[in-house]
Amino acid sequence: MLNFVEIKEQMKSDCIALTFKGNVTFELVDSIIIIISDKLDALEPNLNVRKKMYGILTECLQNLCNHTDDKGSLEIVDFDVKSVAISIKSTESCYFIETGNFVLNEKVAFLKKRIDEVNSKDKEGLKTLYNEILTNKVFSDKGGGGLGFIDIARKSGEKLDYLFENVNQSYSFFSFKIIINKK
After folding, report:
1. Domain map (residue ranges) of the chain
2. Beta bridge pairs of residue 162
3. What is the pLDDT of residue 1?
């Protein structure tokens, strides 16, 4: 059972702006962007930080919309594979955007390799990698070529934090965390 006193204290200490679990649609993405934009406009004085947040949040939400695997249902958890988790938190020094979604186990190695490659690059290396992908025009069936991870890393200026937790023979849960400094 939910303990609302604990939730209230966590929200107070972490300044949680939004937490969501469920199926993501493009309409929901638009609504979330509007809600967070309004909140950031009121709370965040730094225009550059707001722009980073909008860009990174938009990319994360679009990734959840476009790349959540939906080939079945998981009976061992309390929601289906189309469900995602989104959390946006604020502390005095930074924002945290955390997302989670189910991915097919066959995609885990590729995703790890792509994120590790992005994490291995400095600012100039990310720019070069971004341009190489654009030049090669190698895109997936859903339109991405890995540009999203690169774009997020470039905008945040931070390494991408991730975890894959095996759920069963078919699926893993992919947790993804981005830090945006307020400076």
Report:
1. 7-181
2. 176
3. 46
Which homologous superfamily is 7-181 in?
Histidine kinase-like ATPase, C-terminal domain (3.30.565.10)
The rounded distance, in Å, linking the Cα atoms of 11 and 3 is 12
The closest alpha carbon to 101, from 57, 162, 53, belongs to 162
- Region of poorest pLDDT, from 22-26, 53-57, 66-70, 102-106: 66-70
C-alpha dist (Å) from residue 97 to 9, 19, 135, 137 = 19, 10, 30, 29
Q: Is the pTM of this model over 0.70?
A: yes
Q: Sign of the C-alpha dihedral, residues 43, 49, 54, 57?
A: negative
Res 29: pLDDT: 82
φ/ψ of residue 108, rounded to 5: -60, -50
Rounded Cα gap, residues 171 and 144, in angstroms: 21
